[in-house]
């Protein structure tokens, strides 16, 4: 369980549009090159280049369904020969994304930026099964409806940092290119100083323009009131995660978290902590707290030591979403072990 701390003295207003039942699907483009692709058949191209997306039979079905075009024309012949310069487009069919909240509270807004209170369960940027049900999409929908402050400079609101899907808290979003550049630089300040123990950089770290402070409920009772965690974070191969799963790794990038105990509950064997992160590695708090033996309460992925214990849909590569299929995610606990199943239902 993880959240950032939020506070406001002015009345809050909210915005958000309900999600449509199905998203718009996705379009993936490729260009045929002379050296490697020219002369291949259509089915050979897709089944060999994107074999992690679907097996041979899956790509045959997609071609027969008319989901692939060559130079704008639908092609249903798997043995069609590709020539240099051809443009291929694969249309991934629409699907129903997992449930997610859609309302966002506005904490602060001016002509350059907007700060919103992101609810837990809402993804910030598109990825995996969540391509439409994101903060970014709600911001774009709001802009397209003609909010006066968004029209002023022809802005395009975008989040300048991330919060995990399961995390609630303040999310800063830029409405102009200048604001995006400036805010991104402020967030990068702390990360760039990690790993350099010089006095100069330590002083600079104290004067950072943006501080990231979270509250988390963890398993077990922390004995120390304050802990500094300097465990590097890297990636490791993991099923379903094409680019690797982030884990505690001695060969990873430097990361630093400052943990302070706020409350201990010995009856429930839980501790409420405040965490200030100097760097911004993916899943840093989840990894660091599990590394010291106190995983976040309810975290289905990271176990003691900062290593994974089971598959988590938050890290699910989009290749697991079979094209045009609906799926449900099920967790089953047996003798202390957690198993994760994805069950697919073919389209009607």
Automatic annotation (TrEMBL):
- SUPFAM superfamilies reported for this sequence: Pseudouridine synthase
Residues in Pseudouridine synthase RsuA/RluA-like domain copies: 113-290
The reactions it catalyses are: a uridine in RNA = a pseudouridine in RNA
**Which residues belong to the signal peptide in this entry?**
none
| Alphabetized InterPro entries for the sequence | PsdUridine_synth_cat_dom_sf (IPR020103), PsdUridine_synth_RluA-like_CS (IPR006224), PsdUridine_synth_RsuA/RluA (IPR006145), RluA_PseudoU_synthase (IPR050188)
- Record PANTHER family: MITOCHONDRIAL RNA PSEUDOURIDINE SYNTHASE, RNA PSEUDOURIDINE SYNTHASE 5
Protein's name according to its UniProt entry: Pseudouridine synthase RsuA/RluA-like domain-containing protein
Origin species, per record, is Salix suchowensis
């Amino acid at each position: 369980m993880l959240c950032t701390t939020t506070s406001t003295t002015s009345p809050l207003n909210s915005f958000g549009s309900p999600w449509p039942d199905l998203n718009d699907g996705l379009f993936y483009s490729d260009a045929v090159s002379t050296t490697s692709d020219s002369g291949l058949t259509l089915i050979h191209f897709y089944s060999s280049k994107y074999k992690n997306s679907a097996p041979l039979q899956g790509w045959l079905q997609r071609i027969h369904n008319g989901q692939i075009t060559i130079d704008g024309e639908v092609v249903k012949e798997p043995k069609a020969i590709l020539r240099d310069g051809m443009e291929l487009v694969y249309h991934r069919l629409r699907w129903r994304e997992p449930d997610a909240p859609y309302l966002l509270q506005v904490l602060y807004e001016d002509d350059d930026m907007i700060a919103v209170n992101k609810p837990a369960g809402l993804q910030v940027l598109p990825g995996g099964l969540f391509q439409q049900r994101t903060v970014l999409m709600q911001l774009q929908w709001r802009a397209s409806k003609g909010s006066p402050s968004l029209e002023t400079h022809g802005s395009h609101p975008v989040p300048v940092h991330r919060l995990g899907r399961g995390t609630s808290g303040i999310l800063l979003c830029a409405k102009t290119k200048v604001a995006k550049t400036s805010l991104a630089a402020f967030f990068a300040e702390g990360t760039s100083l990690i790993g350099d123990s010089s006095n100069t950089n330590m002083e600079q770290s104290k004067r950072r323009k943006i501080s990231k402070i979270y509250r988390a409920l963890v398993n077990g009772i922390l004995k120390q009131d304050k802990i500094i965690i300097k465990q590097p974070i890297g990636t490791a191969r993991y099923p379903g995660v094409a680019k690797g799963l982030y884990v505690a790794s001695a060969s990873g990038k430097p990361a630093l978290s400052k943990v302070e105990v706020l409350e201990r509950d010995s009856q429930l064997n839980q501790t409420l902590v405040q965490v200030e992160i100097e760097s911004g590695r993916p899943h840093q708090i989840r990894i660091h707290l599990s590394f010291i033996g106190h995983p976040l309460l309810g975290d289905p992925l990271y176990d003691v030591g900062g290593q994974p214990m089971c598959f988590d849909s938050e890290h699910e590569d989009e290749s697991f979403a079979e094209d045009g299929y609906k799926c449900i995610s099920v967790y089953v606990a047996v003798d202390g072990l957690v198993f994760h199943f994805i069950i697919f239902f073919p389209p009607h």
